[in-house]
Design a protein that fits this description.
By secondary structure, the protein is mainly α. The protein contains 13 helices and no strands. 74% of the residues lie in helices and 0% in strands.
Length: 326
């Protein structure tokens, strides 16, 4: 319990620091968030001070002392009120994120979990059957596909399976004639549109999990306790999974925590190539449109998700390896 409480205390301190930095960084940048809108207006002629003040009031640019702004910002974070988007005015930032987040969680989150589980199991099998074709096939194949960049793989799949073979849709998260709702037809249509982005993420990330688990597993198989378990006649599957894999999975678990934390940020390149309306696609448009409130909210959400994922991994470490609790 003390171990968990220490981790929770460190999480709370890190979260406060992240929220504070997220507040300070945009205010340390030169200019103000309204400058982008003023610059667009200035293309048609000089902008008066009255017009500038009206634009700042319309966009909700904060005023007052820095301390007053900080307390107001903390209250907004607690209420999940991040203001109005500049690029999608007058849409609230929370509404934009709320619509994009489910697509990213379903696409990137499900693929990340699937790639981790499948890659870990293949890595265990490759290490246990080292020197055979069951080792060579996933290892060489994983090393080969791991060299492919996300955007290159997505363009290949888009061209051959989308434009040439016409097997999958080439953009969007659902058909233009479909209304988003909790129904079987919409779920099937959404999964159909997510097939190519999901396949891209799975292919390009699977090799890393296989190679990482295989290398850690081979090192663990040389430990004395594994040799002792085999000498006592314990079954091969039990030795591989309960003795060797349980200890070998710890480095992979760290990588999984980081990958899981990054799920909320989406995959900007993949979502951009396929026009998939997830968080990555939203973040790209926020940067292009200089949408400061939306960028600030997305950066904070990504930071918090990484911190939560690291907290869960730390707790799992304590359960899998009692030495870490000391």
């Amino acid at each position: 319990m003390r171990y968990v409480l220490n981790k929770l205390g460190l999480f709370a301190l890190t979260l406060w620091a992240a929220v504070t930095l997220n507040f300070l960084l945009p205010r340390l940048m030169p200019g103000s968030p309204a400058d982008a809108a003023i610059a667009r207006l200035a293309q048609n002629g000089p902008v008066s001070e009255e017009t500038r003040a009206a634009v700042e009031a319309q966009l909700g640019v904060p005023d007052g002392s820095l301390l007053a702004q900080y307390w107001a910002y903390l209250g907004q974070v607690v209420r999940l009120d991040f203001g109005v988007s500049y690029a999608f005015y007058p849409e609230p930032v929370s509404g934009l994120i709320g619509r994009a987040l489910p697509y990213t969680l379903i696409l990137v989150g499900a693929v990340t979990v699937l790639a981790f589980v499948l890659g870990t199991l293949l890595g265990v099998m490759a290490a246990w059957k080292r020197g055979t074709w069951m080792d060579a096939l996933p290892t060489v194949g994983g090393s080969f596909i791991n060299t492919f960049p996300y955007f290159w793989t997505s363009l290949l799949l888009l061209f051959f399976l989308g434009y040439i073979a016409h097997l999958f849709p080439t953009s969007g998260a659902y058909s233009a004639t479909t209304t988003p709702q909790l129904s079987g037809s919409f779920v099937v249509d959404a999964l159909y549109h997510a097939a190519l982005p999901a396949l891209t993420l799975l292919v390009t990330s699977l090799g890393g999990w296989i190679i990482g688990m295989r290398n850690a597993m081979i090192n663990t198989l040389g430990e004395d306790y594994v040799t002792f378990a085999e000498a006592n006649g314990i079954g091969g599957r039990t030795v591989a999974l309960r003795y060797a894999a349980r200890n070998a999975i710890l480095p992979n678990l760290t990588g999984f925590g980081m990958a899981l934390g990054g799920v909320v940020g989406g995959s900007i390149l993949v979502e951009q190539v396929f026009g998939y309306p997830g968080i990555g696609f939203l973040l790209f448009n926020a940067v292009i449109g200089q949408d400061y409130p939306l960028m600030q909210a997305l950066f904070l959400m990504i930071t918090v998700s990484v911190l939560v994922a690291n907290l869960l991994v730390d707790i799992l470490y304590g359960a899998l390896d009692p030495r870490t609790r000391r």
